[in-house]
UniProtKB/TrEMBL annotation:
SUPFAM superfamilies recorded: EF-hand, Ypt/Rab-GAP domain of gyp1p
Lineage: Eukaryota, Metazoa, Chordata, Craniata, Vertebrata
Disordered: region residues: 704-723, 1029-1058
Function summary: Involved in vesicular recycling, probably as a RAB11B GTPase-activating protein.
Domain Rab-GAP TBC residue range list: 474-661
UniProt cross-references to PANTHER family, sorted A to Z: PROTEIN VASCULAR ASSOCIATED DEATH 1, CHLOROPLASTIC, TBC1 DOMAIN FAMILY MEMBER 8B
UniProt name for this protein: TBC1 domain family member 8B
InterPro entries tied to this protein: EF-hand-dom_pair, GRAM, PH-like_dom_sf, Rab-GAP-TBC_dom, Rab-GAP_TBC_sf, TBC1D8B_PH-GRAM1, TBC1D8B_PH-GRAM2
Record-level Gene Ontology MF annotations: GTPase activator activity
């Protein structure tokens, strides 16, 4: 065990200890007399006697490790052990994780401080493991208090766990604590007076991986905003990395991937996330993906055991995994044996061979599976019997019978649903006239029948290397649909939802959405050369399957390439089976492939690029741009090579895909590139390389295909391409398995996780570039400042999503919207940013200004604004632009009377008041003035998107002329009073405050006189009383009363005017002309503002501002 470092003087201890190992910084010692023949002589006997007579609390462990530094007589005890194995494990950990690091320090004191800090961290880490199971452990509370004190995050931020580790600042490691919370990765260190504090939000991470180099044997690399961070010396690095991966993935799915998030109720409440829950979720996801089970299955238990393999007469070692509805087994001894036993198929669970702790499970297929060496097997048998009884309860049987009856009724009512695979209708096999290809096909069928006889037939069959070998050779036409259903796991979905498809077809018939329009457009483009899709039978079946799926999963709806894949499925599977196969592909086997951004396909292309770098380095060196592989291989992944290979060859690829998943597509892609390596290395550009690959795909054949020549695409090659050597698909697939079969499923999933972060951040970078390109034409910020503003805007959007269970802003984030509308903020968030960035944020009525600005920008009246509207409000224009904005803030639709319900708060508004005032509808007032109606964005992400409405809105924006100041409405009395008050508030604290106050009085007096003159000219016969000159009053009233003086004078004028039934008002030109006569005004509004300093300050204060809110 690790010990709290304490000084040891070796001068007096050498006689009691024997040195066994040593290096420059550490010494491993054994207690004299321990483990020696004869007790180690007289000295050993004396030491042994001394240890024996001491009480148990004073006994000394027989092994220990000391830390030493050169030229020092003082050593530090850092570890002890009761056995050689234990102390050796500690010694090896020090050698692998600490030794190489110590060489970077310049002084011995720094080395000793680092080692002591590291050991203390390890002790705390081990101690933390002992209280994990407690409900509210004291040590975790201590860690939580340190977390809250160090980082000052809002109290809603939930700490998941924390680890002792080292953070590398340059070439120097800093020992400290890594805190993992729901939204942030945080690190804190305080050593030798130097404090290091790091906060990275999960949504900013573009790379997360385990790495190793010369100095760092094993570390975790985090990349955020182009900056690299390295953390090392973890006690359990794999556990830490898994948790970090889960939290980063959670943040990405919650904040960027709205479609996946909405389908996953577990992600909805960030306050419910726990360390144990995340680990359990990760294991359950791996379990269901590996065995192709429904996503809802949760891994409950794992038992190491042996499974008796009857056809090979031996026990294979592996793990039994148990979920709510399945018992699964996967070998771990290289035999590639796996079994899936649905509880619905189990007929009995019994103890077998108690001496070997055996469990026997019988199924309806009269197969008995015998597991041995199962820990606590009696308890497991009892539990499995309870599960099976619950599954086969009378109520369940009755419900199944009722569902079956309903299914029959639906089938009766929906006679259009096809019950046969299209291949059996259009290409029936002639059993009497068998040619050589059909004989080979029958031999394949016979091989599978032998396999079924040995290893079982159906969902509970043994799956071994022999099974994969037969799949690689190509599944027989007659068995293809059945085995696709079996290997994909779609058979489990179908068995769990009887009658579901027929009911879905009934509901979806006649629906009209954007998806159904796209489906109708693509129906005739799906395998048009095949007779099955030249008739109404095939087209109707394809329409029903695609429409039913779009109805089932509106988040995906319909995506191009789904029609091609579904066409092939319908050839070999019944209509309902084809539907469930499509569900398995879209929702489990190729996750996120068929959404609007095809994120899943982009992730797998990034994985493919990494595998090319590893396995085909010479090709990587030749290609200057790796994006070529992404562009050329996109169709390979989206259509499983169906779009590039002849149909008779492509179905063999689909065979392998349903058995091995995406691993089969990656292996085949590598084999295709390697086969064409020499030609690709001579290509001068991408177009030439594409031509090489297209000719290769045209030359791929399937010499054993029993399909008629009229259907086979490979047999229709023109003579001009006959010089290209033919390649048999079976040989190509076999070669891909032999050369790249060592690519493990676990490695692919790990690469997928790592590259998902990169792909998402790349898409986000594209969104940012497009937004900035549009906005930069409207505002006068430098590109770097505008980019920083965008990051602050987007961060504020995310901050509202971090701690809200149901955030309205998160609900409005939709990647299918135009770039500008993907991120929007509400009035509360806008207020926070205004307080941080606006040059007018010191104003006493700043909340009112923020509210009016928001209302002015909210053209669609949905209480949300985008970045373009936000950037426009940052007042970076000329004197006239700033004054015009201020003027518009005090007239409808922006202006509304604002008064806080809490007098103690003054002009500050609560969040509820702010939201309330932002939602008030105020119509503009004017005599014949042109006012644009409030534009509503066409169906912002809801239901069917009106493309025409988007185009019209875009055209209107292009045709909109620059706003003329003469078009602005006039400002009435109450609005002008508030305008004057705002000016007073703005000038408070300015060096020229006195001059500005006097200027306001002069301008106001001038405007009132101008209005009086205008009214006299319009109606010379009406009696008019002149107003008291405001300038005289302003000169005499103290500064703090000047604002009230202006208000009183204007109110008096208003009363006089009302008496004569006249409303006075001001045009913008009048106010502008009056203010231009006052140099103090001009200097104030033309004063440059350091936006860079404001942005830097906002970046530092944004989180704290959120904490205060």
């Amino acid at each position: 065990m690790w010990l709290k470092p304490e000084e040891v003087l070796l001068k007096n201890a050498l006689k009691l200890w024997v040195q066994e190992r040593s290096n420059q910084y550490f010494v491993l010692q054994r207690r004299r007399g321990y483990g020696e023949e004869g007790g180690g002589g007289l000295a050993g006997l004396l030491v042994g006697t001394l240890d024996a007579v001491l009480d148990s609390t004073s006994k000394v462990a027989p092994f220990r490790i000391l830390h030493q530094t050169p030229d020092s007589q003082v050593y530090w005890s850092i570890a002890c052990g009761s056995s050689r194995e234990e102390i050796t494990e500690h010694w090896e950990w020090l050698e692998h994780n600490v030794m190489k690091t110590l060489s970077v320090f310049d002084s011995n004191d720094d080395i000793t401080s680092f080692v002591q800090g590291k050991i203390r961290g390890l002790i705390a880490e081990e101690g933390k493991g002992s209280f994990v199971k407690e409900d509210d452990p004291e040590k975790f509370r201590e860690g939580l208090m340190k977390f809250e004190k160090c980082f000052g995050l809002p109290e809603q931020e939930k700490l998941i766990t924390y680890y002792s580790c080292s953070y590398w600042k340059g070439r120097v490691p800093c020992q400290g604590w890594l805190y993992l919370s729901t939204n942030f990765l945080s690190f804190y260190s305080f050593l030798l007076g130097a404090e290091i504090k790091l906060i990275i939000s999960w949504d900013e991470i573009s790379k997360l991986e385990k790495t190793s180099n010369v100095i760092l044997t094993e570390s975790i690399h985090v990349c955020s905003h182009g900056e690299d961070h390295y953390f090392s010396m973890f006690l359990h690095i794999s556990e830490t990395f898994l948790l970090m991966e889960q939290l980063a993935n959670y943040a990405v799915r919650r904040l960027f991937d709205k479609e996946t998030f909405e389908n996953d109720p577990v992600l909805h409440d960030p306050l419910q996330i726990t360390k144990r829950g995340l680990e359990s979720r990760a294991h359950s996801e791996q379990f269901s993906a590996f065995f192709r089970l429904p996503k809802e299955e949760t891994l409950k238990e794992v038992h190491e055991c042996f499974l008796w393999v009857p056809f090979s007469h031996y026990n294979t070692h592996g793990k039994m995994c148990i979920s709510e509805n399945y018992i699964c087994f996967a070998s771990q001894d290289g035999s590639l044996c796996s079994v899936i036993i649905p509880l619905r198929e189990v007929t009995g669970v019994d103890k077998a061979d108690p001496a070997n702790r055996g469990v026997s499970i019988s199924t309806k297929g009269k197969t008995a599976f015998r597991f041995t060496e199962v820990r606590d097997f009696e308890h497991l048998v009892a539990k499995l019997r309870m599960k099976c009884n619950a599954t086969a309860s009378p109520q369940h049987i009755i419900n199944t019978e009722v569902t079956t009856l309903l299914q029959m009724v639906f089938k009766y009512n929906s006679k259009t649903v096809s019950t046969e695979a299209l291949m059996t209708v259009y290409h029936p096999q002639d059993a009497e006239n068998l040619d050589s290809k059909m004989l080979k096909e029958k031999m394949k069928e016979q091989s599978w029948n032998i396999l079924f006889a040995e290893r079982g037939h159906g969902v509970s069959m043994f799956r071994t290397k022999k099974t994969r070998d037969l799949v690689v050779r190509g599944i027989p036409e007659a068995l293809r649909g059945e085995l696709w259903l079996l290997f994909s796991g779609a058979i489990n979905d179908m068995a769990s939802n009887p009658g579901y498809y027929t009911e879905l077809v009934e509901k979806s018939l006649g629906t009209c959405t954007l998806a159904t329009d796209e489906i109708e457009r693509d129906l005739r483009r799906s395998l048009p050369e095949h007779p099955a899709f030249q008739s109404d039978t095939g087209i109707s079946a394809l329409r029903r399957v695609l429409t039913a799926y779009a109805y089932r999963n509106p988040q995906i709806g319909y995506c191009q390439a789904m029609n091609i894949l579904t066409s092939v499925l319908l050839l070999y599977a019944k209509e309902e089976e084809a539907f469930w196969l499509l569900v398995a592909v879209c929702e489990r086997m190729l996750p996120d492939y068929f959404n609007r951004r095809i994120i899943g396909a982009l992730v797998d292309q990034a994985v493919f690029e990494e595998l090319i770098r590893v396995h085909l380095p010479q090709l990587t060196d030749h290609m200057t741009d790796m994006t070529f592989f992404s562009s050329v291989s996109l169709s390979w992944f989206l259509t499983l090579f169906i779009s590039v290979l002849p149909i008779e060859s492509a179905v063999n690829v689909v065979d392998c895909f349903f058995y091995d998943g995406i691993k089969a597509i990656l292996q085949l892609g590598l084999a295709v590139l390697e086969y064409n390596m020499d030609k690709l290395l001579t290509c001068k550009d991408d177009a030439e390389a594409v031509t090489v690959l297209n000719r290769f795909f045209d030359s791929v054949t399937n010499k054993d295909s029993p399909l008629p020549p009229a259907v086979q695409q490979g047999s229709n090659l023109s003579d001009t391409k006959s010089d290209h050597p033919k390649v048999d698909i079976t040989d190509l697939i076999r070669e891909s398995n032999e050369r790249y079969g060592d690519i493990r499923y676990e490695d692919v999933e790990s690469l997928r996780c790592r590259n998902r972060l990169y792909v998402i951040q790349t898409l986000e970078a594209t969104t940012k570039q497009n937004v900035l390109r549009v906005v930069s034409q409207e505002v006068r910020f430098s590109p770097s400042d505008l980019e920083e503003l965008y990051e602050l805007f987007k961060k504020e959007h995310f901050l509202s999503c971090y701690w809200s269970v149901n955030s309205p802003v998160l609900q409005h984030h939709d990647a299918s919207l135009p770039y500008l509308d993907q991120y929007r903020i509400d009035c509360q968030q806008f207020r926070v940013l205004c307080h941080l960035l606006s040059p007018w944020s010191h104003c006493a009525n700043r909340d009112s200004l923020a509210l009016w600005t928001f209302r002015l920008m909210d053209e669609s009246s949905d209480c949300l604004i985008n970045f373009k509207q936000f950037a426009y409000t940052m007042y970076n224009g000329s004197f006239t632009d700033k004054l015009k904005l201020l003027f518009k803030l005090h007239i409808p639709p922006a202006f509304t009377e604002v008064k806080s319900q809490s007098p103690s708060k003054g002009d500050d508004l609560s969040k509820e008041e702010l939201i309330h005032f932002s939602q008030l509808s105020v119509s503009s007032v004017g005599d014949g003035l042109e006012n644009d109606p409030l534009k509503s964005s066409p169906e912002k992400g809801k239901g069917k998107v009106d493309i025409q409405a988007y185009l019209k809105q875009w055209q209107d924006e292009l045709l909109r002329k620059e706003e003329n100041i003469k078009d602005l409405p006039r400002m009435n009395q109450s609005q002008f009073i508030q305008f004057s008050k705002t000016l007073y508030n703005l000038f408070h604290g300015d060096p020229e405050e006195e001059l500005l106050y006097r200027a306001i009085a002069v301008v106001t007096s001038l405007l009132l006189k101008m209005e009086e003159v205008g009214r006299r000219l319009q109606s010379p016969m009406s009696p008019v009383q002149s107003a008291v000159p405001v300038s005289e009053v302003a000169a005499e009233v103290p500064r703090e009363r000047q604002e009230e003086s202006i208000s009183e004078q204007t109110e008096g004028s208003r009363a006089q005017s009302l008496g004569g039934n006249h409303e006075w008002s001001f045009a913008f030109e009048q106010i502008l002309a009056s203010l231009l006569n006052e140099p103090a005004f001009v200097r104030f509004f033309e004063k440059p503002h350091d936006i860079k300093a404001k942005i830097e300050s906002a970046k530092n204060l944004q989180l704290k501002a959120r904490t205060r809110v």
